[in-house]
Design brief:
Layout (H helix, E strand, L loop, with lengths): L1 E5 L4 E6 L8 E2 L1 H16 L5 E6 L7 E2 L1 H5 L4 H19 L5 E5 L3 E2 L1 H8 L2 E5 L6 E2 L13 H9 L1 H9 L3 E2 L1 H7 L4 E3 L4 H11 L24 H18 L4 H13 L4 H16 L2 H19 L14 E5 L3 H12 L3 E5 L3 H20 L5 H9 L1 E4 L10 E4 L5 H14 L5 E4 L6 H4 L9 E6 L8 E6 L5 H13 L3 E6 L6 H5 L1 H12 L3 H10 L6 H8 L1 H15 L7 H13 L11 E2 L7 E2 L3 H4 L9 H21 L5 H12 L8 H8 L1 H15 L7 H8 L8
Parallel strand pairs: 2-4, 3-5, 4-6, 6-8, 7-9, 8-11, 12-13, 12-15, 13-14, 15-16, 16-17, 18-19
Antiparallel strand pairs: 1-2, 9-10, 17-18, 20-21
Helix pairs in contact: 1-3, 3-11, 5-6, 6-10, 10-11, 12-27, 13-14, 20-22, 20-24, 20-26, 21-26, 22-23, 23-24, 26-28, 28-29, 29-30
The protein binds nicotinamide-adenine-dinucleotide.
Length: 708
């Protein structure tokens, strides 16, 4: 795992090569091997200096999450994270100079190895990423990162790396003082050697191990940093509502650890890490954000026997908001895109959308102008269906109207290649119904993107009743080609994400109609960790749209339609007051030209506030459990798998990752407790809180959605 070599000049080279893993990672075996190699170099009197290098494309990608996932208690946490921290401290204090020759990406524990070395030299390659992203998975850098980085570059400068997980390329890392030199890749090892021979001996002691060390920018007790902690702590709470323990634990490591000597600081770091590694919050984040999302991106469930489809040319029908975004995303991924609309001007306008997005990137220096041209040239606006010949996939994104979609389907199929797939981006119309008009319903699939397409990472692949497995497999290949995270969803009205998410605004409107104070509803939504409070969210989407969907459902279902509590609220907002939402400057909120939105005072007249108000926890529970319950129904009905339900909830509508997703929330509170709470809510508020039989059974048998 660590190749060990010495040369005639007394330079030892320790080269990372964890051959049994897809990348160099820190786990029990590689840490032990590295420790042995460090010891050997330090104890060998012939060795004057040491290079730490890698023979893989990356330097070291970070800690092995398989190791961290298995931690059950503090004891196991210390056993998992303690050894590498100790090795790095020994390396740092060995008296011999160590230089990190960083040939590729060094993240998390990988960068922490570098920080412990006496010098960091990195190859000049803008694709290399350097950073400590542990926080994004609910963890903290536990191999000295929270202690060394502030001592190197100051607390203020270190914060974005530690509490936001910022990653930077070599040039920015040099400017920030995280590395000492950026050199051409071919000279990396040579430069490391010459530094060791020329300057190594004088540089083998870290500043914080010398007498009179002055903490750059001051310790936490000095006025600047003290102020900083007030501001950062407050800002963090505003952002996370105190739901995410990792950034707080990191702040504690810095605040406490930077007032004491580094050895004590490292102990503090180990304890805070144990708190995180054993927490439900962190386990939830690792399970969903790393493992589940990784499986979805790898297309783990894709039928293997279907040959992988390589996409070169696709078509998008309808160059409106969704079509334009889709064409841009596909062109960005290197595909040629025929962009078709009813007239040439509309098609051109769709192409211009991508041009504008790229202009902004060019202006910021993030995109090379030549690249912009190449990408733009891949989009071919047209009105001519004959252009669909030669396209492997055609995605329909025209008006949400069955008749328009039917017409487009007929014309598209007449022009498409025999083996091409036709997909609909409908958000509400079941795929099975849309496929009825199709001459080859096995090759008809739903590809439900979210708006704005270029920002939203999720793609729901909708399986209609007659969609073939080969089509599903190739739709998944397309998701991968355009770098979206796919989940597979069986056809049903609203599919999965919109169906479960809708319960959040619906429950909010129901409470409003009951006389719950709107400010209480909004604050509870925010405190629950949702990205936007529910009434503000309806204003963004527009009450008009929801009202239209409600009327459509009423028309479709006729006498079967069951009046919903939110219907009255939507009708009042749309028909009585015309407060349609943000787009018209008024909805549940007023939107002044200047300043922040504020709740519309007139709401109290429409929906009088009751004398008796629920507690914020009761409101939060209703808002959050309603979503999880609908997700559980989708799973019980075989619409979506538990894994995809959780991934979809976090990526599709911003369900709090700390809960692991909509089903993760049920596992977190425990299925039995969840069912009990829903039974109570059903008694108090109606049958929409009734739990599906499968969930009740699961609770009775003590099972979970995801292995503990
Ligand atoms: P849009 O109104 O912005 O765009 C529709 C486009 O289709 C227009 O440019 C229109 O000229 C074109 N069009 C209409 N009839 C056509 C025809 N016969 N042939 C070719 N082009 C035609 O609508 P949108 O918001 O982009 O939505 C498109 C589809 O995507 C709808 O099915 C919608 O439900 C779905 N969708 C929308 C969102 C969203 O947030 N807007 C999200 C997911 C899915």
């Amino acid at each position: 795992m660590i190749d060990y070599k010495t040369d005639a000049d007394g330079i030892a080279t320790l080269t990372w090569n964890v051959a049994d893993r897809p990348m160099n990672v820190l786990n029990a075996a590689s840490i032990a091997a590295f420790d042995a190699a460090v010891r050997r170099a330090v104890e060998d009197p012939g060795v004057k200096g040491v290079i730490v290098a890698s023979s893989r494309p990356e330097f070291v990608a970070g800690g092995d999450l398989d190791l961290i996932r298995g931690i059950r208690n503090a004891q196991e946490s210390f056993e998992a994270s303690g050894p590498v921290s100790a090795t790095l401290r020994a390396l740092e204090r060995s008296g011999k100079p160590f230089v990190a020759a960083i040939n590729g990406t060094a993240l998390g524990g990988g960068l922490e190895i570098c920080l412990a070395c006496h010098r960091r030299i990195v190859a000049d390659d803008p694709k290399i990423q350097l950073g400590l992203p542990e926080v994004t998975l609910g963890l903290l850098p536990a191999a000295g990162g929270t202690q060394r980085l502030p001592r190197m570059i100051g607390i203020k400068n270190a914060l974005p790396y530690l509490i936001e997980g910022r990653k930077v390329a070599p040039a920015a890392a040099l400017a920030a003082g995280i590395v000492d030199e950026v050199v051409p890749a071919a000279q990396l090892l040579q430069r490391a050697r010459s530094w060791l021979l020329a300057e190594g001996a004088q540089a083998a002691v870290k500043p914080w191990d010398m007498k009179g060390f002055r903490f750059p920018g001051g310790t936490p007790q000095t006025p600047g940093p003290t102020q900083l902690f007030f501001g950062v702590g407050g800002g963090l709470l505003a952002k996370t509502q105190g739901l995410y323990p990792a950034p707080e634990a990191i702040l504690a490591c810095i605040y406490d650890g930077c007032q004491v000597d580094i050895d004590t600081g490292l102990k503090i770091e180990q304890r805070q890490f144990a708190r995180l590694a054993t927490s439900m919050a962190t386990k939830n984040m690792i399970r969903t954000l790393f493992y589940a999302m990784g499986e979805a991106n790898r297309l783990a469930d894709r039928p293997k026997e279907v040959p992988v489809r390589r996409y070169k040319r696709i078509a998008v029908l309808g160059a409106g908001m969704m079509g334009a975004g889709l064409a841009y995303v596909a062109a960005q991924a290197g595909l040629d895109v025929v962009l078709l609309d009813v007239d040439q001007a509309a098609a051109e306008k769709g192409k211009a959308y991508g041009a504008k997005l790229m202009d902004a990137q060019v202006a910021k220096g993030r995109l090379d102008p030549a690249r912009r041209e190449t990408r733009l040239a891949r989009v071919h606006p047209t009105t001519d269906y004959a252009q669909l010949a030669g396209c492997e996939l055609v995605i329909e994104a025209v008006f949400e109207d069955r008749a328009v979609k039917a017409e487009v389907t007929r014309r598209a199929e007449a022009a498409m290649d025999a083996d091409a797939i036709l997909a609909s981006n409908t958000s509400t119309l079941p795929i099975t119904g849309l496929a009825e008009i199709s001459l080859r319903p096995e090759q008809f699939v739903g590809l439900h993107f979210f708006s704005p397409v270029e920002k939203m990472p999720l793609l729901e692949v909708i399986r209609g009743a007659r969609t073939s497995e080969a089509t599903i497999a190739q739709a998944l290949d397309f998701a991968k080609a355009i770098r979206k995270t796919p989940i597979v969803v069986n056809d049903c009205p609203s599919f999965y994400a919109n169906r479960a998410f809708a319960m959040f605004p619906y429950e909010a409107m129901t409470m409003l109609a009951e006389g719950v104070n709107p400010a209480l509803i909004e604050n509870a939504g925010r405190l629950a960790g949702m990205p936007m409070p529910p009434l503000a969210l309806i204003d963004e989407v527009s009450a008009e749209l929801l009202h239209k969907a409600m009327k459509q459902a009423r028309a479709d279902q006729g006498a079967r339609y069951r009046e919903q509590p939110q219907d009255r609220v939507l009708a009042a907002m749309v028909e009585k007051t015309g407060r349609l939402g943000r787009k018209v400057g008024q909805g549940f909120y007023d939107y002044p030209a200047q300043g922040a939105r504020r709740l519309w005072p007139g709401l109290a007249e429409l929906f009088p506030v009751a004398d008796q108000q629920p507690t914020v926890d009761e409101v939060r529970e209703r808002l959050m459990y309603a979503q999880s319950l609908e997700a559980a129904r989708c799973v019980a009905e075989g619409i979506v798998s538990p894994r995809d339900a959780d991934v979809g909830s976090i990526l599709g509508w911003g369900f709090p990752a700390v809960l692991g997703g909509a089903l993760g929330q049920i596992d977190t509170v425990g299925a039995a407790a969840f069912v009990q709470a829903c039974d109570r809510l059903a008694r108090l508020h109606g049958p929409r809180f009734e739990v599906p039989e499968a969930l009740r059974r699961m609770a009775a048998e003590g099972r979970r959605y995801h292995a503990a």
